[in-house]
């Protein structure tokens, strides 16, 4: 199914008269410092946004709800429900009644207004306040776009709030490509699908006529690499999301291609080729079609992933006798092993921040999602279950999404996410089975 990327014309404009210089409370402005495995979620309030036109009334409450869900879903924030509010916000220009918000222990307050013109253009403006210091946190901002993109507008507001309070970039205005599954375990149909990060707005990119695996976003979020069995053998395909156009990459008779990922510049692809009983890692220049072999060993080398600066590649290999993780220069060369714990390691993915590598680990009959430093130190296991696999990073490197499958012949895969501290394990709300998630960068 063809899909058009929604074009959101975003105006980040100063809302007139609402942004005096922020006043710092004693001890500094409101801020969550994310440096521990356990924190007390920050209580916040989001009153229903003010509808500045009759047409906007049905979107005002929905936008406030998505913002609240985004923030509460991080585990870093705790929403104070609207029924506990002591005051209603009836005008975007009204002064904040700080005493009423302090009385219910709110530390952050988000107010906003929504308008919809006759051309179907939505305008949302918002303000963020530090209730304790009785001061705005940053300037008021305004976002605009077509009415059908109202969820994107809400995610953008939530990203702004998240960033101002945590000091990190957000991840809500992003998408996830995944494999939607249907049918019994021994005859399951698989289709490529795409959704908002929270499971909303699911759209299918392929039909169920052939098996598909391991979709991966391009750095600009406009293209997807994936593996398809439509020819009878695994082969890597490149799809343009906006047009639905696609093409096979590096068609070589007698070979199988799989496990693709983009280089950070978007001009090259790294993937595995299995030929004559040997599996090695190659890169392919998308413009010229020039292929370069990076590994040459009588072992299985697969699941490559570039570092954010493009200088290194992490991959899995059984060259040591068991499945382990290795890092090599982007042009090939002697790899160095970085995994040394008990068990088997696979599906490594470099963090967007460049400081960590996520992986799947199998040990003593259990599967885990874990992270380690890029030299293999400070390994931490974040999950444990019958089958957890295939991590993918949020755009800000704070959250990992992965596949979790239940045991037995009726076992079903589903998508979950977890914070890199190991906190806030959550299922993604989807209808039907799903696997192989890959997170996009923030949308433009």
Automatic annotation (TrEMBL):
<feature type="domain" description="TolB N-terminal">
    <location>
        <begin position="30"/>
        <end position="135"/>
    </location>
</feature>
<protein>
    <recommendedName>
        <fullName>Tol-Pal system protein TolB</fullName>
    </recommendedName>
</protein>
<keyword id="KW-0732">Signal</keyword>
<dbReference type="GO" id="GO:0051301">
    <property type="term" value="P:cell division"/>
</dbReference>
<dbReference type="GO" id="GO:0017038">
    <property type="term" value="P:protein import"/>
</dbReference>
<keyword id="KW-0131">Cell cycle</keyword>
<comment type="function">
    <text>Part of the Tol-Pal system, which plays a role in outer membrane invagination during cell division and is important for maintaining outer membrane integrity.</text>
</comment>
<dbReference type="InterPro" id="IPR011659">
    <property type="entry name" value="WD40"/>
</dbReference>
<keyword id="KW-0574">Periplasm</keyword>
<comment type="similarity">
    <text>Belongs to the TolB family.</text>
</comment>
<dbReference type="InterPro" id="IPR007195">
    <property type="entry name" value="TolB_N"/>
</dbReference>
<comment type="subunit">
    <text>The Tol-Pal system is composed of five core proteins: the inner membrane proteins TolA, TolQ and TolR, the periplasmic protein TolB and the outer membrane protein Pal. They form a network linking the inner and outer membranes and the peptidoglycan layer.</text>
</comment>
<feature type="signal peptide">
    <location>
        <begin position="1"/>
        <end position="25"/>
    </location>
</feature>
<dbReference type="GO" id="GO:0042597">
    <property type="term" value="C:periplasmic space"/>
</dbReference>
<keyword id="KW-0132">Cell division</keyword>
<dbReference type="InterPro" id="IPR011042">
    <property type="entry name" value="6-blade_b-propeller_TolB-like"/>
</dbReference>
<dbReference type="InterPro" id="IPR014167">
    <property type="entry name" value="Tol-Pal_TolB"/>
</dbReference>
<dbReference type="Pfam" id="PF07676">
    <property type="entry name" value="PD40"/>
</dbReference>
<dbReference type="Pfam" id="PF04052">
    <property type="entry name" value="TolB_N"/>
</dbReference>
